[in-house]
Design goal:
By secondary structure, the protein is mainly beta. Helix content is 0%, strand content 52%. The chain contains no helices and 9 strands. A 5-stranded antiparallel sheet has the order 5-6-3-8-9, with no helix packed on it. It has a 4-stranded antiparallel sheet with strand order 1-2-7-4, with no helix packed on it. It is globular and about 40 Å long.
Length: 108
């Protein structure tokens, strides 16, 4: 894992019904792979035309659906009605096979 700055910027918007829209932007270096996950109760949804898919299994998360270069992805997270804490999102970003960051955290 890299310890240098990832060049990734995460922003968010709050929508209706406890929905949070996350935007992940790359600097001048696009990324190939991404994983976004959270321990918060809720569900991710993916806007049309985003190269993202839901992760299988017990994990509440999404990952890239192809390895094309990306400079922006967007996902929505619908918090469960009984969730009381603010969600923290954890990101893993891959630029090349040997260049990745696995400690990016974001809390809206």
């Amino acid at each position: 894992a890299q310890t240098s700055d990832s060049g990734i910027e995460v922003t968010s918007e709050k929508g209706d019904n406890s929905t949070i829209t996350l935007h992940i932007h790359a600097d001048d270096n696009p990324f190939k792979g991404i994983m976004i996950y959270t321990d918060a109760k809720g569900n991710f949804t993916i806007p049309e035309d985003m190269p993202i898919k839901l992760m299988d299994g017990e994990c509440t998360g999404v990952t890239n659906s192809d390895d094309t270069s990306k400079d922006h992805v967007q996902v929505d997270f619908q918090m469960a009605e009984d969730e009381t804490k603010k969600p923290e999102f954890k990101l893993l970003v891959v630029r090349d096979d040997d260049k990745y960051w696995n400690d990016i955290k974001y809390q809206p």
